[in-house]
Structures
1.
Amino acid sequence: MPNPKSYRKGKLTEKSSSFHGEKPSKTAATLRRPKTDPELLSFKNLGLSAPSLDGRPKMTKLLFNVTIQGSLGPVQVLMSPDMTVADLVAATVRQYLKEARRPILPTADPSAFDLHYSQFSLESLNEDEKLIALGSRNFFLCPRKSEDNDDLLASSSSSSCSTQAKENAKSSSGFSWFKFIEFRI
């Protein structure tokens, strides 16, 4: 059995010989290279369509993050940019129910929900607007408060964010903050 120290010395001299200008052995010259596929980086394999007129590839799918009011994390939905806001709401509700997330939605009807840019946005997005024109991929979904689904949402502890803001605006007067200040003399 060879001595481990002598074995290491032999390997070191073989490796360092290439650095001193000696010709490499024949085994190094005949290394086989793997065959490459010229279509490896084609647009078909990346899931992209052919380049547009400006040279950039056209997007075929977009990943959207939609946070539903009361849920812990966003629902991720992969959709075509040509779809509308109504399609995104329907796909988000369908995915939320499929993943069996909590809290349970009061209804599975997508028309009972409004899509907003954020939880602080009071205006909901137009249902006929294209997703590519929105300019964002992160949205907030909250239940719509209307006369049709009041009884469906009554069991839910949270109400629509836009209706809460409207009710607060109606009930508050210009000096409503005075009632919180204690006057002492």
Note: The chain has a mean pLDDT of 75.
2.
Amino acid sequence: MAHDNSSVQIELERVQKKQRFRRIFVALKPRIDGFLEGCRPFIGVDASNLYGKYRGQLASATGVDGHNWLYHIAYAIFDNENEDNLVWFMEQLHRAIVDVPNLVICTDACKGLETTGAVFPHAENRECMRHLYQNFMKQFTGDVFTDHLYPAARNYTTGMFQWHMKKIYIAPNTIEHLETRNNRIWYRCGFFENNKCDYLTNNVSESFNAQVKKFKGLLLHELVDKLRELIMEKRGT
């Protein structure tokens, strides 16, 4: 359902003879308008655990305004971090903001977010370098990776990127690991130029999660109200 062009979707499911909450998506009209008219075409997407009486996931879409401050665009609450829920979240987000020119969507290791490209076919899909690095170093250890993986990601030129990657590819299985498990863009020389945004990480989502951490133990209606207050409040930092 929509209220004054805000996008609010609430889904219920029937359990025996009762209706039970399933999931909710909220994108308020002023936040949608502000993102479309005054923010960079960059969205960090993430989902994190709720730890109150009723467990679940809080998904968020967070942007960056002209001052490099966080800009809350939309959020959703559902039971599990699975493909169905995350694709639903991305579909609701697409309905709210439609197709944004030169859009970048940055995600980490959320299950199901590999399907982002199907929902936003014209967007550049990036993978958070911090999460990629942490997961990579669980499989491969050594100074060669410490010395070359991040420099490869940071470099703006294809030649230097390839030079660092050749050092990494000396180790067996690294090519297969990066190409099969990390098939979204994570290196600057592969970024589109028109979006004018060279962020390697999904820190905007991490910052949102830090802001709402104290709310994650609340009951559902209390959580939604606290998120409303946070999103509606004009922040100067």
Note: The beta strands are 2-3, 6-15, 18-27, 42-50, 56-64, 70-78, 104-107, 124-127.
3.
Amino acid sequence: MNGRWFGARGPERVLWDFLVFRKVRAVLGGQIRLILSGGAPLSGDTQRFTNICIGAPIGQGYGLTETCAGGTFTEYDDTSVGRVGPPLPCSFIKLIDWSEGGYLLSDKPMSRGEIVIGGPNVTLGYFKSEDKTNEVYKVDETGMRWFYTGDIGQFHDDGCLEIVDRKKDIVKLFSTGNMFP
């Protein structure tokens, strides 16, 4: 892999690279070798477009403040899109049924459910908020402390996680009549 246009072949690649994409890379300094993305997962189209324009792979990570930012991360040579990689060595990740939303471990072709993260990277709870802590942190019969993320995911056959939904909407929309009370 030469760091340009993953999967592209032939003279078209050289032409587009020369006419358009080398200028995009030059604006960004011309030396980008890897891009890291965290927070919300990138859509497959955005990831593919950026790979083509910049000619560098995008490593996606998934984690939350409650998991000390660590959860999953794509491997350098993974050219798939729309996934956030396998669990980091410090993280144990499992899916649990969320029947209210229609996401079940019995779903076919892939099990789907709420993402739950355990391991030494999971914080003890929220500062001075015991109710919230008890709502999203649970200890199982083995003594493992689990954080219930509220994100919905599915695992691919190679162990990579894909975020497919969220239990709660992050953005709250207001009607014009209630925006300014």
Note: The mean pLDDT is 85.
4.
Amino acid sequence: MAGVNRKISAASARAHTRKSKQNTSFHFPSGMFRKILVVMLMGLLAWAYQAIQPSPPKICGSPDGPPVTAPRIKLRDGRHLAYKEHGVPKDKAKYRIVFVHGFDSCRHDALRLSPEMVEELGIYLVSFDRAGYGESDPNLKRTLKSTALDIEDLADQLELGPKFYVIGYSMGGQIVWTCLKYIPHRLAGAVLISPVINYWWPGFPDNVSREGYNQQLSRDQWAVRVAHYAPWLTYWWNTQKWFPSSSVIARHPDVFSPQDKELLPKLLGRKQYEAQIKQQGNFATLHLDMIVGFGKWEFDPMDLENPFPSNEGSVHLWHGDQDWVVPVTPQRYIAKKLPWIHYHELPGAGHMIPAADGSGDLIVKALLLGEH
């Protein structure tokens, strides 16, 4: 009997040992659990930080960067600006124009003018790569004012004279507002073609900005909202794969109006230089355009005064009523708010006004000769 009891006691001990092991196999001391949570949180934060950090730009002319092939000037802050000259020689020109390219473009995307008109009127036009685009050095501290000063530097170093004309398209059109603010004394006239709107300009009544904002594709509403409220997430938002990013960056077909789609074949020539446009990186070009363009501005364009009170020059705004990239509603309000601007609304036109046959001549004649 004693032997039986010893066997039962031994079996009970083994069972208790197994039960104790089962009870302790998934138990961590509270201190260890906290350490694991901290490590996991630090890993998640490190991943998130890396995800939102853009890659450094590949600067043209640097050992690992693209080559420099265009003529360039050195700006007041030491950066280089690449440019391209068009038309008659500037020393023989009657009119000197600086053209500001748009989003995802470069100096090669200048306004198209007929050779006959260029020769007849004596037009010299210079286009340039905005900071970070093409072969111009990036400016990671880009501001509203900096591009206007870049334009002034370019005009001075190319000896365009005390006054010159400026024409900007799309995002370049938005930059013309900054020229009217910061260097109006240098302008002989200005043109904004399909200029990008900042829906947070305080001069817009809520109903106007809301209507224009809501006319965008849903994915573009989110893209500009991120650029405005969380600029530090702009790079991540437009590179992640979880949500649709900017349709303009993605070149989604839904952003093109019927007329824009008809004009797309005219842009096939861009394939020759398209690889150069963003060769220094998307952040220094597209993403900074969004951060600055849709960020908080230190001035409201609707507070600007007429830079030509004696009609010694003129300002023109051209927009298509079927523009699906930049809705027309806010432009109409600006035209009413600033009656000194000559507003031209083109029925049936989309965003790609400069690509339409004869549009460049029409725009320039209105600027230089007052023809409508």
Note: Residues 101 and 172 are 5 Å apart (CA to CA).
